[in-house]
Structures are given as C-alpha cells and as structure tokens.
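Example for tutorial group B:
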C-alpha cells in the first residue's frame, strides 16, 4: 500500500506539536532567557523568560534586535559593542557581563553567552541566552570589599606593630654587642632571634596583604643577579651550618652581568625557597643553581633558579596545597618546624606578578626541587656601570662620599622617644659623638638655622611638619625667611617603617639620599653612615654576633 506525502505529514504533526510543547516547557523552566535575532533584518525572538527577567509580561515589549541593546547601562555599552563586533566578525562565541534597565527602573547585572550561526536559508543569526547574576555580582563585590578591608587592616596593624618592635630589636642588638656573660648573652640572643622571627611573620603578612589588595608594585631597576643570589644564600648560610647542612650555590657563566627588574623581590623569592629548604632538611644538603635562557633579539632573558634539598619531601596532596596561604603539610609539621606557611604563598604571588612560573617536584623522604623562571630584561648599560664602579673603587684618593671636617655632627629627627634612643645609641656605638635629637620637622629646622650638620636621619611621618616638607626646606636652604647654617647638599636619610619599593621610590624621588627601613640594626646603620660620611676610622669593627638581620 502506497503512503502519500499528506499521510506522512498527518502522522508527523502530533509528534511535532508534542516536541514543540516540550521545548516550550524546557525553555520556561530554564533560568536563562533565550533569544535569537537576524543580522540582516529586524527579525528577533525572545523567550518569555527574557521578559520575566526584566520584569515585563511576554509581548509587553516589541521583539526587535534593540530590545536588549537599548537597555544596556551607558557605562557598559562601548564594551558590549566591541565584544559583539569581535564575535560577529570572527565568528567566535562571546560572554559578557553588563547591566540592563528593568521595568522597575533599577539596573541589574546579567551574563550573556552568544554566538553567530547560519540557518538553512543562509541567514546569519545571533543566538544567545542571558541570566540574572545581580545577586552573584553583589556578593562578589562585597567579598572583594571585605578582602580589601582585611588587607588594609593587616597592613595598618603590621605597620603599627613594627614601631615598638623597632625599639625591642634595636635595644637587643645594642645589648648583644656589649660585654655580657655567657648566660646573659644566650638570653639576649634568644630574645633577639624571637623578635626577628616575629618581624619576619609581620613582613610576610604585610606582603601578602599588599599582593591581595593589588598594592604591591614591582620596581624595574638595574641589578646584578649574581649579587642578589649570593646575598640570599649568605643570609641562610649560618642557619644551614648550625644544622650541619651543606649549602652550595652555582651560578652559570651565561647569566647576564646585569638585568632590569625588582632585585628586592627576586631576592625575597630566593631567600624564601632556600629558607624553606633549610627548615625542612634535617641532614644532607641544599643546592642552589642559577641559569639563564637568553633571547638576544628581544634583549630579554629568562632567569632560571633551582633550589633542591635532601629533606623530608612531600606527598602529591601536599604539593597541590603548597602555594596556598597558611598551609603546611599538617599540624604536626607546623608544631615541629614552625612557621606560618606564608613564605611559599608569597613566592607564588611574586612570581605571578613578574609573569613567571614556579614549579616543584618532590616525594616523601626523597627531598624537593623547586624551579622558578622569571622573564627579565637584559640591561645593556649595567655591565659598563659595574665595571666602572669597580675601577673607581681601585683608584687611590677617589672617594664617592664626603669627608666630615672636624667632629661629625648628626641630626636625628624622630617623634618617637624609643626610636630616638635606638638611633642615638646606634650612632654613638658607631663612633659618632655629636648627636642632636629633634622630635619634629619644625624643631629640626630650628637646629639647622643655628648649626651645621654633616648628616640628617629623618623619620618620614611626623606631626607638625613631616619628613618630606622638612626635606624640601633643607634643600631650599631657607626657612621662614632665614638662611640655614646646614648646607643644602647635606645627606638626608629617610627612616621609614614602610620600607617597601613604593615608599622607597617616593623617598628617593622626593630628594632623600638614602633610606633605613625600620627596624634596622647596627650593621645597616654603619653601612648607611659610611656611604655618606668618611667616618670609618671612628667606627669599630662589628663583633661576629652583630650580624645584619
């Protein structure tokens, strides 16, 4: 029996109706609103859910291409149009978040996912869906605001804690360099190490909070990678030796003499990795290897740092959580080895900021190997600068610093009485006999009207007249119509508890000659004084226990 086309159509009609109804029910149940419009005419289709999301009844608005477009928030339109043009031109999917005006008059956040297709008759169509993400967006904004508030609180708290710690560490450092019995020296050393441990934790929290708040800025200055690596290894060498560990450092010959980047942060990454290796290695060795992969055509270089150890190693589960803040293998590890678990998290954040990579290979009982790759710019002027500095240093009679004529007179401008005592005691310990104290900028300028100073150490944050305004008056040589006796070229050293790169840049740009980050120790004070005054003959050699922090 022959089947006619009409019979086939009649049989298919009920199935088509059922399928259409199922599709309509599915679309009604979906959270997303569906839409489709042609690119070559004003034909458009919007599901009832689209109207519902905007607060309208189906059919209450005309189904045109402009239904959504005309309701986009003015601040979002240019961004949306650019994304749509790119998607339509290149036939790629696009996803957008923007605000739409609803019937109530309020703007709500929506997410759109769309793509371009061609129907059976060749008509280009934009097909997409929108979903209401206003609650999600508000929750995200609130979470980000809370995170910023937390980071700001941590930063402020950490800064406030550094001020009293400066007094504690300064006094302990002076005490350790005095004449003590064995028992008293052990007590002083223990207190000093404990205070240093506390300041290290505060610094880690401060760095992490700045990264999370987006306030940590990287420098781009010329530096010598070999020097940075050696300093980081020297910093941890004593700890390794005390544990009976062998710490070896190898720097490949192809590592450029000079690079451009942030030497402080590069050194911090390396010090954290080496410190971590020393902490978790009971016996054996730590190896530090530095190599470079240069791209001469682009004047760039990938600095490759590898730190390996023969320590306790890690499980795969530990590795997956390794770069998360405050994470350690387990509570027993924290009790046994100490620490906050922030060091590696900060490493990861810093490496990401430098657009580099960090990875780790490890197994329980077989040690660990960390590798960091940092893309840096090769400094073509650096090698000449380094060689010129070395040649000048060998020339007799060439001194980059000034001579003090007669007894050296140093002015300390500091509003905190404890910090005054630390600075004065350190200077006297270093052989500077004439130290004058001023509690603010106004008092400092009053002294400078009457006396000539060879060096000024000045806090940046003070009442009445802060360090920056005081410095400007010193450089002018005039204050309130009176000439100052102190020369306008007098070296002025900034003393700041905010010794991060941004604050240091601000100080140097303002005209400070150098800076001392609080808390500082005798070795750091000695280095700064010697950089600007030739008073080395008055400064005794430091005792072995008085090492830099």
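The residue assignment follows.
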């Amino acid at each position: 029996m022959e089947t006619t086309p009409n019979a086939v159509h009649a049989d298919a009609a009920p199935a088509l109706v059922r399928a259409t109804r199922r599709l309509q029910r599915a679309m009604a149940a979906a959270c997303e609103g569906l839409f489709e419009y042609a690119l070559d005419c004003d034909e458009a289709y919007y599901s009832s859910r689209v109207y519902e999301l905007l607060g309208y009844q189906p059919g209450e608005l005309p189904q045109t291409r402009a239904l959504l477009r005309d309701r986009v928030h003015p601040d979002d339109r240019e961004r949306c149009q650019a994304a749509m043009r790119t998607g339509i031109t290149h036939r790629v999917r696009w996803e957008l978040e923007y605000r739409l005006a609803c019937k109530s008059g309020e703007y709500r956040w929506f997410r759109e996912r769309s793509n371009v297709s061609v129907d059976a008759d060749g008509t280009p169509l934009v097909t997409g869906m929108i979903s209401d993400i206003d609650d999600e967006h508000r929750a995200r904004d609130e979470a980000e605001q809370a995170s910023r508030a937390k980071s700001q609180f941590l930063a402020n708290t950490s800064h406030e804690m550094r001020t009293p710690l400066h007094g504690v560490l300064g006094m302990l450092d002076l005490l350790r360099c005095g004449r003590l019995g064995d028992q008293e020296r052990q007590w002083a050393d223990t207190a000093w190490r404990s205070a240093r441990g506390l300041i290290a934790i505060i610094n880690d929290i401060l760095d992490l909070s700045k990264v999370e708040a987006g306030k940590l800025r990287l420098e781009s200055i010329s530096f010598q990678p070999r020097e940075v690596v050696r300093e980081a290894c020297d910093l941890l060498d004593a700890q390794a030796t005390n544990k009976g560990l062998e710490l070896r450092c190898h720097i490949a010959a192809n590592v450029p003499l000079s690079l451009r980047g942030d030497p402080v942060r590069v050194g911090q990454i390396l010090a954290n990795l080496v410190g971590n290796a020393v902490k978790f290695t009971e016996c054996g060795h730590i190896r530090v290897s530095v190599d470079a992969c240069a791209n001469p055509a682009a004047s760039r270089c990938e600095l490759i740092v590898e730190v390996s150890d023969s320590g306790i190693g890690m499980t795969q589960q530990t590795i997956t959580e390794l770069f998360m803040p405050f994470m350690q293998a387990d509570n027993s590890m924290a009790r046994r080895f100490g620490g906050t678990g922030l060091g590696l998290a900060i490493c990861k954040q810093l490496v990401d900021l430098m657009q580099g990579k960090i990875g780790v290979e490890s197994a329980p009982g077989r040690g660990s190997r960390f590798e960091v790759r940092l893309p840096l710019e090769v400094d073509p002027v650096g090698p000449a600068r380094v060689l010129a500095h070395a040649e000048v240093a060998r020339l007799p009679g060439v001194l980059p610093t000034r001579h003090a004529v007669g007894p050296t007179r140093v002015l300390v401008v500091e509003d905190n009485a404890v910090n005054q005592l630390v600075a004065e005691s350190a200077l006297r310990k270093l052989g500077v006999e004439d130290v004058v104290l001023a509690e603010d900028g106004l008092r400092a300028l009053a002294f400078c009207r009457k006396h000539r100073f060879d060096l000024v150490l000045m806090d940046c944050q003070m009442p009445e007249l802060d360090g920056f305004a005081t410095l400007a008056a010193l450089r002018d040589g005039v204050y309130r119509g009176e000439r100052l006796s102190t020369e306008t070229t007098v070296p002025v050293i900034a003393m700041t508890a905010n010794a991060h790169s941004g604050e240091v840049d601000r100080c140097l740009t303002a005209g400070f000659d150098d800076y001392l980050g609080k808390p500082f120790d005798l070795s750091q004070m000695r280095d700064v004084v010697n950089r600007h005054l030739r008073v080395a003959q008055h400064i005794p050699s430091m005792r072995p226990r008085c090492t830099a922090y």
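The domain at 221-386 is CATH 3.30.565.10 (Heat Shock Protein 90). Compare this with the pattern of hydrophobic and polar residues in the output above.
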